[in-house]
């Protein structure tokens, strides 16, 4: 993970503490709604997303918390 983080910093000139990697094998492969630890997300730090395989839309929804 440190190697990936180092490459991201080198390539994009910024650091991050969240990286999402997904692989969708076919049109039926998916993940359900989930809530990723909002307490550790810094709104000033980008979250990098790498998605492989089948295309999927990235959707956000309100989670009902103040975080």
What does this entry look like structurally?
With 67 residues, the chain is α+β, with helices and mostly antiparallel strands. The chain has one helix and two strands. A two-stranded parallel sheet has the order 1-2. The chain starts with a helix and ends in a 14-residue tail after the last strand.
Give a short synopsis of this structure.
The protein is an alpha+beta fold and about 70 residues long. The protein has one helix at about 1-10, and strands at about 20-25, 50-55.
Major beta sheet summary: 2 strands, parallel
Query: Helix/strand-derived class?
Result: alpha+beta
Straight-line distance between termini: 26 Å
Order of helices and strands: HEE
Strand order of the largest sheet: 1-2
The count of helical stretches stands at: 1
Q: Return the average pLDDT rounded to an integer.
A: 83
SSE layout and pairing:
Elements: H1 2-12, E1 19-24, E2 48-53
Relevant terms:
67 residues; alpha+beta; two-stranded parallel sheet; 1 helix; 16% helix; flat
């Amino acid at each position: 993970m440190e190697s990936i983080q180092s490459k991201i910093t080198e390539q994009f000139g910024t650091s991050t503490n969240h990286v999402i990697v997904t692989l969708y094998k076919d049109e039926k492969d998916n993940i359900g709604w989930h809530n990723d630890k909002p307490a550790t997300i810094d709104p000033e730090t980008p979250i990098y997303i790498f998605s492989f395989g089948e295309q999927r839309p990235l959707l956000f929804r309100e989670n009902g918390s103040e975080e």
